[in-house]
Design goal:
Elements lengths: L8 H27 L2 E2 L9 E2 L3 H7 L2 H32 L6 H8 L1 H4 L2 H12 L5 H8 L13 H29 L3 H9 L4 H13 L6
Antiparallel strand pairs: 1-2
Helix pairs in contact: 3-8
Length: 217
């Protein structure tokens, strides 16, 4: 029986990308973990000594660490959560038939394709406490009497940044969910209509289960 020789060409083609990933991601991660067990003096980096878990004990006893940790959890939870919710609502809207739907779909991608540096500059101008657009709009509506430095006070800085990343990330979720919505066969909705299902029942029994197959990568 002749044994079929294994083809190594697919592995050779993937090897350059794999080497780059290992160099850019894996090596720095291992280096960071190694550094966390050592004590470094920036003035004399060659005299780093092994300290075991001392660095972890110090950081776990620092209240600033726990405050930063909870802020990070809130950042991820609120940011991704609102992106998904509003992205889902936008996808449902763009999946409907209406005049100018193609243009609306194109314009909805603007926040996602805009460079991050430009987004930062734009929203900094919107939030500016002296001549920002948001302060001007709120003043004209009579909602505020004194200008608010949104990025300069603790009560408004974090919500303002969350709003910015939500605005930027909504199109990504909308695009992925819209692709999933368009892949749902119309026969499923027709069958639900025949069975007398309401709009809410169609949403939870047809739309949501069908979207579970949507791939995010």
């Amino acid at each position: 029986m002749i044994q079929r020789k294994s083809n190594i060409w697919p592995y050779l083609l993937v090897a350059p990308a794999l080497i780059v990933v290992l160099t850019v991601v894996f090596v720095p991660v291992v280096n960071a973990i190694t550094m966390s067990f050592r004590s470094y003096d920036l003035t004399r980096p060659s005299r780093a000594g092994f300290v075991g878990l001392k660095n972890y004990a110090v950081i776990l006893a620092d209240p600033l660490f726990w405050g930063a940790l909870w802020k990070t959890i809130a950042w991820v939870g609120l940011g991704v959560g609102f992106q998904f919710v509003f992205g889902f609502a936008l996808a449902l809207l763009l999946n409907r038939e209406f005049f100018g739907r193609g243009l609306a779909r194109s314009l909805s991608l603007i926040p996602w394709v805009t460079p991050g540096v430009l987004i930062g500059l734009m929203w900094r101008w919107i939030y500016d406490g002296n001549y920002g657009v948001l302060n001007d709009v709120l003043s004209r509506l009579g909602l505020i009497h004194d200008k608010i430095p949104f990025l300069a006070q603790t009560t408004t800085a974090f919500p303002a940044v969350i709003l910015t990343i939500v605005w930027q990330g909504i199109p990504f979720f909308a695009l992925m969910l819209l692709a999933g919505l368009q892949g749902i066969p119309d026969e499923l909705y027709d069958a639900a209509d025949v069975d007398g299902a309401s709009g809410i029942q169609r949403f939870f029994n047809v739309t949501i289960p069908s979207l579970k197959r949507t791939r995010w990568t």
